[in-house]
Specification:
Elements (H helix, E strand, L loop, with lengths): L1 E17 L2 E15 L2 E7 L13 H10 L5 H7 L4 H15 L18 E2 L2 E3 L4 H13 L4 E5 L5 H14 L6 E5 L9 H9 L5 E3 L7 H10 L4 E3 L9 H11 L3 E4 L1 H4 L1 H14 L3 E4 L6 H12 L23 E4 L2 E4 L9 H4 L1
Parallel strand pairs: 5-6, 6-7, 7-8, 8-9, 9-10, 10-11
Antiparallel strand pairs: 1-2, 2-3, 4-13, 12-13
Helix pairs in contact: 2-3, 4-5, 8-10
Length: about 350
């Protein structure tokens, strides 16, 4: 078996704002496996400044993994515990190589185009008018669940945007999730949660920065509406550490990004623990290309979650890969009539 890795820069259609700044491009890496005339592809969806494996030796570790591909999927996964995006890329690549179609990893009613996955419509941070336009666009597109990134502009303006949305749509009509990306200061977090509560929000992701477990535990105990942990899960590698975190903080929800938590195997560990402790969860992409998004969507469908998932990121880039995934009326569909970009594997 031969393994190679390839860097690829995804270009945003328009600069996208988070509480950590404006993004104009997104780095990703592909692992391509070749054996007996067949090829398989996996995506290592690293997000600089956030991923646990954003380290100086990242490419060195990718190179090592490709040179030691003979060790096999399980041994590599266990050896690369501190490199979750590489774990995921290898896991995906091995599945792809074994599959008759390198992009059809988990055949199901979803890939047969008979069933879809409910997703939330993502509204990026920016000037109030831009955010308002996005909200109106998502509602026009038929989404009944939207997720707003907050924490980058003036909080009062963000409250005005929520008021605008709620003045037109009730909580029964539109579910609103907000994501603070850890932007709230410890001293102000509860006050801001109380101000947000009047808009009947579904949940808030990561109100304060990760690494403050005592403060997060207290917030989860007294919050007026549910808190979902996101960044808090990054860098928590062993099952023992995962269980300890959930036992301590007791969040209402956790949000799982396979590229950040060790692929499907790592995600499944979190799901098993969450179910054990009666904690809700949903799965989200981490700005991967359509290669990674395709794998995540296929696996997510098999988890039979009825909650809207965070998988609507395929249209963000100017140079993404053509694929069968498409969004319609707040649902992610796998349209068999649409083909993968021709000769994609031959180009890498």
């Amino acid at each position: 078996m031969k393994a190679t890795y390839h860097k690829y820069m995804l270009e945003f259609k328009r600069p996208s704002g988070t509480s950590r700044g404006i993004m104009t491009e997104k780095e990703t890496w592909f692992i391509v496996l070749e054996e007996n005339g067949k090829k398989g592809i996996g995506e290592c969806g690293i997000l600089r400044g956030l991923s646990a494996d954003d380290r100086g030796d990242y490419e060195e570790k990718l190179n090592w993994a490709c040179h030691n591909i003979h060790l096999g999927e399980t041994a590599l996964w266990e050896t690369l515990l501190e490199f979750p995006s590489i774990q995921f890329g290898l896991e995906m690549a091995f599945l792809s190589l074994k599959s008759e179609n390198p992009y059809l990893l988990f055949p199901s009613a979803f890939t047969a185009t008979s069933k879809s996955i409910p997703i939330n419509g993502l509204v990026w941070m920016g000037e109030p008018q831009f955010m308002k336009e996005q909200i109106e666009e998502k509602l026009d597109e038929g989404f009944d669940c939207i997720k707003l990134k907050i924490g980058a502009i003036d909080f009062e303006k963000e409250l005005e945007l929520l008021h605008f949305t709620r003045s037109h749509f009730s909580a029964e009509q539109i579910e609103i999730r907000v994501d603070a990306n850890g932007a709230f200061e410890l001293s102000e977090a509860l006050d801001k949660l109380n101000q947000l509560h009047k808009f009947q929000l579904h949940s808030i992701e990561q109100p304060i920065k990760k690494g403050n477990p005592e403060a997060m535990k207290e917030l989860c105990e007294i919050t007026p509406f549910p808190i979902a942990l996101d960044e808090e899960l990054i860098g928590v590698f062993s099952i023992e550490e995962k269980e300890k975190l959930l036992q301590k903080i007791k969040p209402q929800y956790i949000i799982l990004k396979p590229s950040f938590v060790g692929g499907f195997r790592g995600t499944q560990e979190w799901i098993t623990l969450a179910d054990q402790y009666k904690i809700g969860w949903w799965i989200t992409s981490a700005l991967e290309s359509n290669i990674g998004l395709n794998a995540i969507a296929q696996w997510t469908f098999l988890q039979h979650s009825k909650m809207p998932q965070g998988l609507g990121t395929g249209a963000l880039y100017t140079n993404n890969f053509e694929c069968p995934l498409e969004v319609s009326k707040g649902q992610l569909w796998y349209n068999k009539a649409k083909k993968w970009q021709s000769h994609l594997l031959d180009k890498l």
